[in-house]
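The instructor's notes for this session suggest beginning with a concrete chain rather than abstract definitions. Hand out the sequence below and ask the class to guess, before any prediction is shown, which regions might be ordered.
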Amino acid sequence: MNRNLTNVIRFILDECLPPIIRDNKFFMYPLFYIWFKRKNIDKIMNLKSLVYEWSDEEFAKFYQELDSLARDRETDLNTKCIEFIMQALDPEAKSLIDVGCGGGYFANKVAALKKYETHACDLLDHVEIVGGTYHKANIENLPFADKSFDIVTCHHTLEHVRHLNKAVSELKRIARRQLIVVVPRQKYYYYTLDEHINFFPIKSTLVSLIGIQNHICENLWGDWVYIGYLSKEVR
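After discussion, reveal the predicted structure:
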């Protein structure tokens, strides 16, 4: 199920239903049952209460074993976001890492340009990056030196992390020139079909979290696209 369709589903649920119905366990249960293919429904529905009690290993295992209708799509990025980001990549940069790369869609798209030394990382044991390098790593403790990469991208990942400030600090630490972050523009509800534990309904939530003075932040088809410029030569 592609991102554009799930954005429509999210809009109907979050914007068209009264909150008392939208966040009702009994109303949402059949949707979870279908979306997660009848597996671990109670655990997933109560993710927001359970996730902070898990070890790093339990957290990684949850995502490694997770199966849903959304797992079938190539990327969480919508078409408009991809076009915007590809045009905004610093042409003078030499290296890029995609943190929280999922199946590697965006990293492979960048690697195909043959302009950047391309890296990617996630919690999965292995992801195929053609012409690039994959690293198994947790965004909250990245195994890279300061300013290791000219461009750091992170798409549809911050809404899932348990220690948000630590994750953002790590992204900024390893970036030399550009930090590009995409998160959904989404209201908080306890029962969400997307395993999100952090929410960014307004621009200032994301802008203040990242805290890079020189930046732009655009709303593109239901997602915030944030580009922070860490080098004065880049804009």
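Then share the key points. The longest helix spans residues 3-16. The two ends are 35 Å apart (CA to CA).
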